[in-house]
């Protein structure tokens, strides 16, 4: 029973992810910021989809943070500083199929507070 529930949750997230990705794309001047969350940590990438390259990335394990709202704020501050070094002030937010709630929403708000326009 538990395995079926987990498969269903994952398939629904993948459906949401595909719907989102059909509508947004990253450019060199306005990259796509994609977040991935596991039970233990958070990962973020700024992706330029035209050439399929990652402009910058930030890893929660290397920063020593957990996958909670406080960790999301620290991660947002780190990726915002990397984006500003690269000269990027505007980006598109890819929530990667997750609901815009909790950790994902805290990350997006912290990005806005650190000067990245989403």
Task: Provide a short characterization of the protein structure.
The protein is an alpha+beta fold.
In which order are the strands of the major sheet placed? 3-2-1-4
What is the average per-residue confidence, as pLDDT, rounded to a whole number?
Answer: 94
In N-to-C order, the SSE pattern is: HEEEHHEH
Count of β-strands = 4
Q: Report the uncertain regions.
A: none
Helical proportion, percent range? 40-55%
Radius of gyration: 14 Å
- What is the makeup of the main sheet? 4 strands, mixed
How many separate helices?
A: 4
Amino-to-carboxy terminus distance = 40 Å
Shape: globular
Give me the secondary-structure category.
alpha+beta
The assembly state of the depicted protein chains is single chain
Strand content: 15-25%
Subunit structure: Part of the 50S ribosomal subunit; part of the 5S rRNA/L5/L18/L25 subcomplex. Contacts the 5S and 23S rRNAs.
Function: This is one of the proteins that bind and probably mediate the attachment of the 5S RNA into the large ribosomal subunit, where it forms part of the central protuberance.
Protein name: Large ribosomal subunit protein uL18
Keywords: Ribonucleoprotein, Ribosomal protein, RNA-binding, rRNA-binding
């Amino acid at each position: 029973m538990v395995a079926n529930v987990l498969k269903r949750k994952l398939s629904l997230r993948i459906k949401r992810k595909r719907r989102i990705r059909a509508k947004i794309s990253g450019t060199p001047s306005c990259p796509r910021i994609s977040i991935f969350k596991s039970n233990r940590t958070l990962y973020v990438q700024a992706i330029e989809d035209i050439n399929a390259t990652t402009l910058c990335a930030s890893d929660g394990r290397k920063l020593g943070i957990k996958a909670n709202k406080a960790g999301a704020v620290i991660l947002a501050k780190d990726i915002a500083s990397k984006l500003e070094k690269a000269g990027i002030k505007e980006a598109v937010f890819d929530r990667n199929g997750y609901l815009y709630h909790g950790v994902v929403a805290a990350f997006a708000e912290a990005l806005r507070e650190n000067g990245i326009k989403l």
